[in-house]
Amino acid sequence: MHKYTVQEVASKIDHAVLKPDQTEADVRENAAMCIARGVASLCVRPCDVKLAAELLKDSPVMVSCVLSFPHGADATPTKLFQAQQAISDGVQEIDMVMNIGQFLSGNLDVVLDDIKAVVDTAHARGVAVKVIQESAYLTLEQVALACELSLAAGADFVKTSTGFAPSSATPEIIDVMVRTVGGKMGIKASGGIRTWEQAIGYLEQGATRLGIGATAAVLDGGIGGGEY
If both were cysteines, with which of 66, 97, 158, 182 could 72 make a disulfide (CB 3.0 to 4.6 Å apart)? Predict the structure, then answer.
């Protein structure tokens, strides 16, 4: 079994600054932490993209943002405008929320077209797209179907959760994602990851990115126990 170093795990983390009460000072403080710890990206709210891009411009840390967060219920033209604005502001990766209600209604063509519209806009500017399923509302069979839709739409990653639903990433959900689109898309486990052991567990399952808010605590949990 691969022994993960703290830096390897850090390089897989999208550090989330997405709570409604987080301030500009929080964005600045977390951007500095992301640079110091060497994470993959700082994931911010759309209104914070421009500031994050300025703070991270001389670092290898990417700017990512959420789109139609946390419910995915915006009309497709609104999502397109959000994507275009985020790209203009300097985003490098977009985490869009799938239209959960339309998916659960069985309107799969609507969901596919919604994702594809954002993907096509983003890819034209070299921006990657992750599709948040909000898996807590789905059966495991629906998780697999949502993965297949995201793949068909050309998205780069599937992602479990916003962190605002009743539950978030689970090993069972990641297992379904890996079996369905592993090797074809990136897989992001997000929400509820608060320990080094949880982070390592998802990576060992096949997740390729981790959405974490308590990044420093998770990484510091790997130091005392050595390099896993």
Answer: 97
Per-residue pLDDT tens digits for 56-113: 999 999 999 999 999 999 999 999 999 999 999 999 999 999 999 999 999 999 999 9
Q: What is the pTM of this model?
A: 0.95
Q: Is 192:167 a contact under the CB 8 Å cutoff?
A: yes
Distance of CA 177 to the CA centre of its chain: 14
Q: Using an 8 Å Cβ cutoff, are 114 and 132 in contact?
A: no
E strands of 107-185, at which residues? 128-132, 157-159
* Active-site residue set: 95, 159, 188
Residue 67 has φ and ψ, to the nearest 5°, of -140, 135
Q: What is the mean pLDDT of residues 51-59?
A: 97
**Cβ neighbours of residue 126 closer than 8 Å, sequence gap 6 or more:** none
Upstream peptide bond of 70 is cis (omega within 30 degrees of 0):
yes
Burial class (CB within 10 angstroms; exposed 0-12, middle 13-18, buried 19+) of 164: middle
Separation between Cα atoms, residue 75 and residue 114, nearest integer Å: 8
